Amino acid sequence: MNDGLIYLDNNATTQVHPEVGAAMEPYLSGGLYGNPSAGYRFGKQAREAIDGARSQVAALLAVKPEEIVFTACGTESINSALHSALRCFPERRHLVIAAGEHSATEKPCEYLESRGYRVTRLALDGEGLIDLDELEAAVSADDTALVSLIWANNETGVLAPVEAAAEIVRGKGVLFHSDAVQAVGKLPLSLADSAVSMLSLSGHKLHAPKGIGALYLNQRARFEPWLLGGGQEGGRRSGTENVAGIVGLGQAAELLKNALDNEGQQQHLQKLRDRLEQALLDRVPNTLVNGHREQRLPNTSNLCFEGVDAEGLLILLDNAGICCSPGSACGTGSVKPSRVLTAMGFSPARSRSSVRFSVSMFTREEEIDRTVEAVEQAVNKLRVTLPSGGGPVARHT
Length: 397
Ligand code: PLP
Prior knowledge:
By secondary structure, the protein is of the alpha/beta class. 39% of the residues lie in helices and 14% in strands.
């Protein structure tokens, strides 16, 4: 169907793993369509499938199955965490997030600000890192309802020191949530003894389908549901369950746990990412890496090709059958510079010259090599047509 396509946009979404599709099939078109809340055996088959998937997702995070709540997507999980904290602590009017959060966190926070809440956004340094001292100073035991930090940035892949941050926040008696949509499945995360109270993940970023997500909810954390209705998911998320999606997420979680346990997954991703990045740095002059070189996801490379319009570059790559993204996929079509790169102190010009490549378990070396060729050619072509010749851009705004 997509012969010859080279898909290097796995932070936007991923291919459903064939084993995930096969596990879902009985619940999609194989006749197992019972309602998991029904009392007869046909319904109980669906209930058992959900319970199995809950255990698989819990195992990936090293938590208890009853601490996993299935939702429709990462965005829903994040929104429920934010709103739950505010409802559990109505007297508290303050939230702490990082400056480069995904819009699934940033937008609800902007809305809450418009309703009179205070939001502190922790600064990012030039490599995309936050400062734990700034976090400690920002959290007020009396007024902060929640601290929410993105574990791995979707644009740069840069990691937050989540475990240490969660400890600081717990010490002040405040709830801690992490948007781990990009981290889960790419890094081994064990929440067994962690101070993280809530964590959001999304199926379509880890080879399960779109339309399924989960919220980890520590059994000691207070929680108020966001969706009210039939009381599914132990009353924590009403709505008839997406059985096939849940089964798919469970299967993907099991596959990734096995892959991460033997370290093969991370090594594979990093080898391919480094091959791509190093070749582009070597072969394309005036190429810069956006974000910390070590403290980042193994699959993500965000590169600035100085003086080159990323939109133009992406069109040429698209013509060559290569998919990658200008910063965040959710920002595609907008002319605004990336919020993340801006927060890191980069100029609008640097943002507009930056492209994100993100590999997956399905990426092959030969695809990386073809991409390097194509990028080199496209950048040369675009630089020749530039009046300035595509010289270096200013680093800071
Ligand atoms: N958080 C991060 C870091 C993401 O990358 C995304 C998706 O792009 C989301 C949240 C939203 O997840 P979903 O698409 O499942 O709503």
